[in-house]
């Protein structure tokens, strides 16, 4: 097993006043040659956007973009004609493919919106752009893995999908609970990101926003003494 600890305090950070953003991997003006990506996972940004502000219309291409809302409400508009508001418990996916433009604004004039945004390289380039979102708020069990995003060849009614052999899942661990994550595809790696709480993963202690990257393994053992919310991002390593 290969492991690499990614402490929260070592992430890239940019505070633009209206936007406070932490980068797990090289992004914008933050460049770390040792943290450019983890397999097909290219971006994991932890963003807070002030009320009445947001990202103006900007382009993307050849990327699968996943947005997970943590607090507040995010308004989305894109060149495909979609106009949506995403709230906590909801997840959004976009296939940028041959090219899209989109804008993201805080839906509130006064309250912050907080969200995680992930970029995953697709299996092939030049795909047709697409958009989807799903509400998971009422489906989140404790001590059970909740699949949020699955591969396009493993589509299911209770999860979103992307054009990659990747699984993105959420786990809510209760106090004094253990969990074994089993990788779905041999050869994949898994990026374990602690959203809230504290865990031990393969004897490594992780707190809020810490992460650990694991490869060359078939499973990962977790335990939480205080309870935790954990994101698993399983991706191909090549």
Describe this entry's structure for a reader.
The structure is a single chain. The two termini are 17 Å apart. A 7-stranded mixed beta sheet has the order 1-20-17-22-15-13-14, with no helix packed on it. Strands 2-3-4-11-6-9-12 form a 7-stranded antiparallel beta sheet, with no helix packed on it. The protein has a single domain (2-236), classed as Jelly Rolls, CATH 2.60.120.10. It has no helices and 22 strands. It is mainly β and 238 residues long. The mean pLDDT is 96. It is globular.
Order of helices and strands: EEEEEEEEEEEEEEEEEEEEEE
- Which segments are poorly predicted (pLDDT under 50) over 5 or more consecutive residues? none
Assigned CATH architecture: Sandwich
By secondary-structure content and strand pairing, the structural class works out as mainly beta
Strand content: over 45%
How much helix, percentage-wise, in residues? under 10%
Rg (C-alpha, Å): 17 Å
Question: In total, how many domains does the architecture comprise?
Answer: 1
Counting DSSP H or I runs of 4 or more residues, the number of helices is 0
User: What name does CATH use for the topology?
Assistant: Jelly Rolls
Largest sheet: 7 strands, mixed
- This entry's quaternary arrangement is single chain
Give the CATH H-level superfamily: Jelly Rolls
């Amino acid at each position: 097993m290969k492991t690499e600890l990614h402490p929260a305090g070592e992430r890239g950070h940019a505070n633009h006043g209206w936007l406070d953003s932490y980068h797990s991997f090289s992004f914008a003006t933050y460049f770390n040659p040792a943290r450019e990506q983890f397999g097909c996972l290219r971006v994991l940004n932890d963003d807070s956007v002030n009320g009445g502000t947001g990202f103006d219309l900007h382009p993307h291409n050849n990327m699968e973009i996943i947005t997970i809302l943590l607090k507040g409400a995010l308004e989305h508009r894109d060149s495909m004609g979609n106009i949506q508001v995403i709230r906590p418990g909801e997840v959004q996916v976009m296939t940028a493919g041959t090219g899209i433009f989109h804008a993201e604004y805080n839906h509130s004039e006064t309250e912050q919106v907080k969200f995680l945004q992930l970029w995953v390289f697709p299996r092939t380039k030049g795909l047709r752009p697409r958009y989807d979102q799903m509400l998971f708020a009422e489906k989140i069990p404790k001590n059970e893995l909740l699949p949020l995003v699955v591969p396009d060849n493993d589509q299911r009614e209770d999860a979103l999908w992307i054009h990659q052999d990747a699984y993105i899942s959420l786990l809510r661990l209760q106090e004094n609970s253990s969990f074994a994550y089993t990788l779905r595809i041999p050869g994949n790696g898994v990026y374990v990101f602690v959203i809230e709480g504290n865990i031990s993963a393969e004897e490594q202690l992780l707190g809020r926003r810490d992460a650990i990257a694991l490869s060359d393994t078939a499973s990962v053992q977790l335990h939480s003494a205080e309870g935790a919310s954990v994101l698993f991002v399983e991706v191909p390593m090549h």
